[in-house]
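Sync notes, pocket subgroup
Present: LS, DG
LS reminded everyone that the earlier model was apo-only. Rerun requested with guanosine-5'-diphosphate included. Inputs:
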Amino acid sequence: MQILVGKIPTNNLMTTYKKNNFFENCSFVKGVANIEGLEISNVPEIAFLGRSNVGKSTLLNAITKRSKLAHTSKTPGRTQELNFFSVIIDRPVMNIVDMPGYGFARASKKKIKEWTYLSKFYLQNRPNLRRVFLLIDSRHNIKASDKEIMNMLDECAVSYQIVLTKIDKIKNQDDVILKTKNSIQKFIAVHPEIHSTSSHKERGLEDLRNAISSMVE
Ligand code: GDP
């Protein structure tokens, strides 16, 4: 008689997750406004980060196929919070963190300082953080404020990957991808593959969903 012991192979688990519509099992957990509110977790985690207005909430809603998921937590005053979402399939299988947008034209020095303190603390103290998806508006390429964030991610040794947004707005997609590839070359912790997406036209979403769900153990 053969007794099967041990972990179910990852591939089988992933198939089950996909069958169960991974992202439809995602719900908002809480907003964290200060470092005291951060709870230790051993669940694989990914985070979304980008300049304000890059299309982060729209992309989160599009990949989860839930029209109000990210916007529900985007009420005034809460935008500086780290918003935690959890994918639960019998048990929590992944945390998704919506980090506050940066690069506000009119942000006060105090707000920028608060943003940097909380975000940097989070990035430096998150062993379960598998990857940060750094969103870049495909119309604007990588700006100085994005480069500052990339330097911060390099310093924190956090793996990150560029996701171009709003590609329906550009004509020369290949040129933009090439230009972006060239501008990320000197960064250390960046993943070389670039995702290009349009939430409005539902382009590149399935690839991004697969990249995210493949990070579940
Ligand atoms: P956030 O501040 O990064 O959360 O940005 P939002 O998700 O609120 O989006 C900012 C603006 O960009 C809104 O007017 C969206 O409708 C628009 N937007 C978001 N995604 C897309 C997209 O894929 N294509 C186009 N054309 N516009 C988009």
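DG: The pocket of guanosine-5'-diphosphate is lined by residues 50, 52-58, 101, 165-166, 168-169, 198-200 (CB under 6 Å).
LS: The helical segments are 10-19, 56-64, 69-72, 109-124, 144-156, 173-184, 205-213.
Action: DG to write up.
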